Amino acid sequence: MLHGLGEATDGIRPEAQSWPGPVFGLDFTGHGLSSLPAGGGYTAEVLMADVDAAVAEIGPCTLMGRGLGSYVALLAAGGRPDMVRGAILTDGPGLVGGGIRPHSAALPHISQHHLATPDPLAMYELARDVRPPDYALDYVRQAVEWSGLEHPISVCTRVRPEWLAAVADHSGVADTTVAQALAGYCDAADS
Question: What is the mean pLDDT of the chain?
Answer without folding.
Answer: 92
